[in-house]
């Protein structure tokens, strides 16, 4: 049984400490919406590749301005969703668990990312046997992985991740098809340390009743998002423990985060959102 995290509501804002991160991203050179594999995708609507590239570049540069390292993988023709790097791997303590996609259109992406890790010196790379869409459905809290299921990642992939990565995995069920990946409905604001519990933000209505009770028990001080936050992909944010990168439309969530001592940093992801992606979707974190 996992114990409830102690309260940290009254922590001083000055204790929000940013930690330097390392990210892997993929330029959207071949970005398109040629098919629909989630409710946000509409192939009949035009896509501006130049604008998508400019938005992605600004997101990458924002991370670098915040002091983080960003590495890039070469995009491949015919794989328009390869820009959403978060779906292609989970890296904890230098051990890499790759991806296995549910949609046939994305299946080839997994091997390109696998090769990138091998070519960059990672030897502990394991590819999953079950459908596993990586950080799209896996959120590392510093102590455990919160793992989503219901639309993409198989529930059996949660046990596989625990065995391969050697960390506890807690299953959560998603029930709203608009929020088909965990990273559209929940993200970690600050990871747990020896002295502090993890702090998260999430949209309760995206989860089953049982999963909502689990989250409320484990994270009583979580920042709760509303429908407006969720609909603009506000929960697809990226936090370094202090600076929180959010879509420009997520103003309500930004205000609540600022009240908790975080520094909202806005990013325009409107073109990328046409494929159901936001800041986190574009960002795979490499944890050594």
UniProtKB/TrEMBL annotation:
<dbReference type="GO" id="GO:0045429">
    <property type="term" value="P:positive regulation of nitric oxide biosynthetic process"/>
</dbReference>
<feature type="active site" description="Proton donor">
    <location>
        <position position="181"/>
    </location>
</feature>
<feature type="active site" description="Nucleophile">
    <location>
        <position position="281"/>
    </location>
</feature>
<dbReference type="GO" id="GO:0006525">
    <property type="term" value="P:arginine metabolic process"/>
</dbReference>
<dbReference type="GO" id="GO:0000052">
    <property type="term" value="P:citrulline metabolic process"/>
</dbReference>
<keyword id="KW-0378">Hydrolase</keyword>
<comment type="similarity">
    <text>Belongs to the DDAH family.</text>
</comment>
<dbReference type="InterPro" id="IPR033199">
    <property type="entry name" value="DDAH-like"/>
</dbReference>
<dbReference type="GO" id="GO:0016403">
    <property type="term" value="F:dimethylargininase activity"/>
</dbReference>
<protein>
    <submittedName>
        <fullName>N-Dimethylarginine dimethylaminohydrolase</fullName>
    </submittedName>
</protein>
<dbReference type="GO" id="GO:0016597">
    <property type="term" value="F:amino acid binding"/>
</dbReference>
């Amino acid at each position: 049984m996992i114990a409830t995290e102690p309260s940290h509501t009254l922590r001083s804002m000055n204790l929000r400490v940013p930690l330097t991160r390392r990210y892997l991203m993929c330029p959207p050179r071949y970005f398109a919406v040629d098919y629909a594999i989630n409710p946000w995708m509409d192939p009949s609507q035009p896509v501006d590749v130049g604008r998508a590239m400019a938005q992605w570049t600004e997101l990458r540069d924002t991370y670098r301005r915040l002091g983080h390292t960003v590495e890039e993988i070469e995009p491949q023709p015919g794989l328009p969703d390869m820009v959403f790097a978060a779906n292609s791997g989970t890296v904890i303590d230098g051990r890499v668990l790759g991806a296995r996609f549910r949609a046939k259109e994305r299946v080839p992406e997994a091997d390109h990312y696998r090769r990138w890790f091998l070519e960059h010196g990672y030897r502990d790379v394991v590819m999953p046997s079950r459908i596993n869409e990586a950080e799209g459905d896996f959120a590392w809290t510093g102590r455990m992985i919160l793992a989503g299921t219901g639309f993409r990642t198989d529930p059996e992939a949660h046990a596989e991740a625990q065995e391969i990565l050697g960390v506890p995995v807690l299953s959560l069920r998603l029930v709203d098809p608009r929020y088909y990946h965990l990273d559209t409905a929940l993200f970690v604001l600050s990871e747990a340390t020896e002295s502090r519990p993890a702090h998260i933000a999430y949209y309760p209505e995206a989860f089953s009743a049982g999963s909502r009770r689990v989250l409320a028990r484990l994270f009583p001080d979580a920042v709760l998002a509303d429908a407006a936050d969720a609909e603009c992909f506000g929960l697809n944010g990226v936090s370094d423990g202090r600076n929180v990168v959010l879509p420009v439309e997520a103003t309500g969530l930004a205000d609540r985060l600022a009240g908790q001592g975080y520094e909202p940093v806005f990013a325009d992801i409107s073109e990328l959102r046409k494929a159901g992606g936001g800041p986190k979707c574009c960002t795979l974190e490499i944890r050594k």
